[in-house]
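Reminder to self: tokens first, then the designed residues, so the page reads top to bottom the way the pipeline ran.
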């Protein structure tokens, strides 16, 4: 069986943080992004409203800031090793995140077959974000279906990894799912639960990994 592994980014591949937080830290705007994140989690802001707000906040953003945020983020250990193992098995791995596409797509460098985020303009910004390109939790399923068609698999062949309410819809439609350092309301939707800082250990829970990808 060929499998498609679908990874969330914020709070899943990244331990205890999110790409908007890491980007804002590079700009000295940690307090400001904390307020926006709280409003988003409380559902006071919809995904498109959050996107417009962070774009305004990041008026001085440059590609150097983005790269520094990516390189300095608290990533789980073993991401590249897991994705290499997935590739060697003939399976596929993809990232689907509500975070900005210019950040999410950097994970292609680590071996993801695909990386989909909310579509933002190139940095530095010269135009407003088109809200039609901002992903929602339901849109994660739509993107997953497109990836299934692209790679010749079905939802029944998918494994999802996530941590929050934005992953609930995807967890509902796949047979295998791993809640990674997750919030309580996602746990009941998951077939497996992982707490820790090594993706190799979370991947082992699915039962499809080779022993060679175990965390050292």
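Designed residues (216 positions):
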């Amino acid at each position: 069986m060929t499998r498609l592994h679908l990874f969330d980014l914020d709070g899943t591949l990244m331990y205890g943080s999110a790409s908007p937080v890491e980007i804002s830290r590079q700009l000295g705007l940690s307090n400001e992004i904390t307020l926006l994140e709280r409003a988003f989690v409380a559902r006071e802001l919809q995904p498109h409203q959050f996107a417009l707000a962070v774009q305004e906040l990041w008026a001085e953003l440059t590609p150097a800031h983005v790269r520094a945020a990516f390189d300095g983020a608290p990533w789980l250990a073993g991401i590249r090793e897991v994705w290499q193992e997935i590739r060697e098995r003939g399976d596929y791995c993809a990232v689907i995140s509500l975070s900005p596409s210019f950040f999410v797509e950097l994970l292609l460098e680590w071996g993801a077959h695909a990386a989909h985020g909310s579509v933002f303009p190139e940095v530095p910004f010269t135009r407003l974000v088109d809200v039609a390109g901002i992903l929602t939790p339901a849109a994660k399923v739509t993107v997953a279906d497109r990836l299934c068609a692209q790679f010749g698999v079905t939802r029944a062949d998918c494994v999802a990894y996530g941590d929050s309410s934005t992953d609930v819809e995807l967890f509902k439609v796949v047979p295998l799912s791993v809640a990674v350092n997750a919030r309580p309301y996602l746990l009941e939707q998951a077939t497996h639960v992982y707490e820790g800082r090594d993706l190799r250990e979370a991947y082992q829970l699915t039962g499809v990994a080779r022993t060679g990808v175990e965390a050292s």
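The first strand starts at residue 4 and ends at 7.
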